[in-house]
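Lab meeting, action items carried over

1. Structure of the four-component assembly. Owner: GW. Status: complete.
Input record:
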Amino acid sequence: MLKLTKKADYGLIAMRHLTTVYPRSASAKDISDHYGLPAPVLAKILQTLVRGGFLASEHGANGGYRLSRGPEQITAFDIVRSIDGPIFLTACFTEDGDCEHHKKCSIRDPLRRIHEGIIGLLNKMTMAELASDADPASSLLPIGLISSPNLTILNRQ
Amino acid sequence: MLKLTKKADYGLIAMRHLTTVYPRSASAKDISDHYGLPAPVLAKILQTLVRGGFLASEHGANGGYRLSRGPEQITAFDIVRSIDGPIFLTACFTEDGDCEHHKKCSIRDPLRRIHEGIIGLLNKMTMAELASDADPASSLLPIGLISSPNLTILNRQ
DNA sequence: TTAATGTAGGACTGATTCGGTCTGATTTGA
DNA sequence: TCAAATCAGACCGAATCAGTCCTACATTAA
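Predicted assembly:
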């Protein structure tokens, strides 16, 4: 759990590609061929991102998609939320904000802090950063999180 | 997407409850009644946490579950991973580490940094912190168990 | 004008997972 | 012994995910 859908993955890959060719455009087929992604799925994702305002579409022959803003003005959070919908750490965080256990559960507030932290991480990752292989990663992580030795990425059991 | 399952939620609620009564125990029924959680589901979750080594079970009448370690030695990450399984931000982060697009996708490394950050956030939230947020039940805590005021997760210096 | 290219969008399917129910076995204390 | 409680597994309906198929619309090039 706690992972992105494949659609969000595909969306990020496509956005990264479009960032590298920015401000030019690329067709859905170009991208799906290049990365071996299923073309119809990718097409839908790109349409979603158009509706979200992050891409502009160009119809007709030699058409395609291009970023509607600069790569540094679009974040990973934008893309993920646009494709996967709102991000909630727990079911408590609905729009209505009403959770049937709300009165008693009281884990809501601590989790909200984690929740905001996750969104913050995604929000700091711009397309420009995603597309740059250079890696001043330190700027991304809150101080104190980097050096912890038990932060193994692959938590195999 | 990108949210915890209800089981993880229930597990955290139960762990928080058991933290407030620590080092005493509580039965699954006590907890499910108190928070209105489905009892059989909660029972399974607690069994999982026993296998994970975070709870000890006491059979028979007046039995129940209690924390097997101090509340500051169990983190939200422990509980979530134990219940929901390994946490991967993207499908790329499997145990094998092989992703069919691996050669070309190149969003792997930036996402890995976000992934590490998320795990770091969860790892810094101990049960003691989870239970310490203002709540009437906190008065049940033995003196000295409420952790230090240095509880902010984000931007901790 | 016509054909090719490409986007837009809905309907549908198969697989997987999630949340939850049900049933029964085992262990312990009164 | 009996009741309370944990332990353990099978099972099911609903939801979601990933992907395919089909059709319609828009633009450009020949």
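2. GW to write a short summary for the group page. Key points so far: Residues 5-7, 38, 40-41, 58-63 of chain B lie near DNA strand C (CB under 10 Å from a C1'). Chain B has seven helices and two strands.
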